Amino acid sequence: MARIAIALLMALFCGAGRAQDASPYAIDIPPWFANTFLDFREDVADAARDGKRLMAYFGQDGCPYCRALMKDNFSQRDIVHKMHEHFVAIALNIHGDRETMWLDGETRTEKALARFLDVQFTPTLLFFDEQGKVVARLNGYYPPGRFTAVLDYVASHAEGHETLGSYLSRTVARDPRAGLRDEPFFLGAPHDLTRRAGSKPLAVLFETAGCRDCEQLHEEAFRRSEVQRELARFDVARFALGAATPLTTPDGRHTTADAWARDLRIAYTPSIVFFDDGGREVFRVDAYVRPFHLASGLDYVASGAYRSEPSFQRFIEARADRMRAEGVTVDLWR
Q1: Which of 149, 164, 179 delimits the end of a domain?
Q2: Average pLDDT score over the chain
Q3: Do the domain assignments include residue 316?
Q4: Dist. CA 252–CA 193, nearest whole Å
Q5: How large is the average pLDDT for residues 244-257?
Q6: 234 is in which domain, residue-wise?
Q7: Is 327 exposed, middle or buried (0-12, 13-18, 19+ CB in 10 A)?
Q8: Residue 253 vs residues 17, 140, 250, 259: alpha-carbon distances, Å
Q9: Dihedral of the alpha carbons of 34, 39, 40, 45, in degrees to the nearest 10
Q10: How far apart are CA 250 and CA 106, in angstroms?
Q11: Which among 99, 100, 217, 264 has the fewest CB atoms less than 10 Å away?
Q12: Total structural domains in the chain?
């Protein structure tokens, strides 16, 4: 009887562990998120029938940016009101095994769909129109002010006459007295960014004057020794979003900073776009980022790891594990 009781207890504990591992959500999801069969064609149509648009959230356990989205953004009454009024929200786990059906009719698990959609950051948010077209994609965390502006952009169907980047430039409050901050590692004029075999990889930073997150990038991330070490492996160019600064792109085209930023669909500032020595974009950071993830992104490109490891998430996890094994304290939000 004792052996049977022990076996039953072990089964209960194992079952609890399996249930926890199989949790479909990546973090504490607000109760107003919809539970659906994750058939995107149906979810888009159901939202449209109710006069709303679909928002799909991709997250994962332990992601500090996902936690910020849930705790900081989705705790604000104005944001929650806009979500209720204009959107149907669904949640997916980038490591999850639930079946989904994408707009192409193909069935994929959550993790396979995340790979198919090239989800490199969490949270990643996709906003769909009534026909299933993605009209806005946030590759990472947007703080509440900018997130609210994104909701307004999608809810008002503004994509029909304006890019998200242009909309955010007009509507997000900034300090008009502030200018752009310089750094000693920025390339000077003339801005010939042409890449040649053997060139350093190129990091191109887009900023706007008076942007609080840009200021934080300079005051905090750029002051960190680990970030400085990684930056030394790059040529670094910086442009103001909307500026008429002439430049030659990494692939040899003559244009202006404003036109190039529009070609690259830059919406968030600061954004950093990375190019290899062939002039090809290989990675970008275009959402709010903390120093650990910035240093990791720089290492991901400079080391060439992106060539063999297409998942930035797996690269970060392996990098953090190596650092911990070396006795380094790793704080993803530090």
Answers
A1: 164
A2: 91
A3: yes
A4: 8
A5: 97
A6: 191-325
A7: exposed
A8: 56, 29, 8, 11
A9: -80
A10: 36
A11: 99
A12: 2
How far is residue 33 from each of residues 71, 150, 175, measured CA to CA in Å? Answer: 14, 18, 35
Residue 143 has pLDDT above 80, yes or no: yes
pTM of the model: 0.88
Domain boundary among 129, 164, 199: 164
State the pLDDT at residue 26. 54
311 and 114 Cβ atoms separated by less than 8 Å: no
Task: Report the CATH number that the domain containing residue 209 is assigned in CATH.
Answer: 3.40.30.10
Asked whether residue 139 falls in the same domain as residue 223, the answer is no
Query: 321 and 200 in one domain?
Result: yes
**Residue 234 in tokens:** 């790059």
Specify the residue for token string 């104005």. 78
- Residue 176: the pLDDT is 64
Q: What is the mean pLDDT of residues 179-202?
A: 94
Tens of pLDDT, residue by residue over 93-116, are 999 999 999 999 999 999 999 999
- Give the Cα separation of 229 and 231 in Å (integer): 6
Q: Are residues 257 and 146 in the same domain?
A: no
Report the DSSP beta bridge partners of residue 206: 239, 271
More confident residue, 178 or 253: 253
Residue 1, pLDDT score: 42
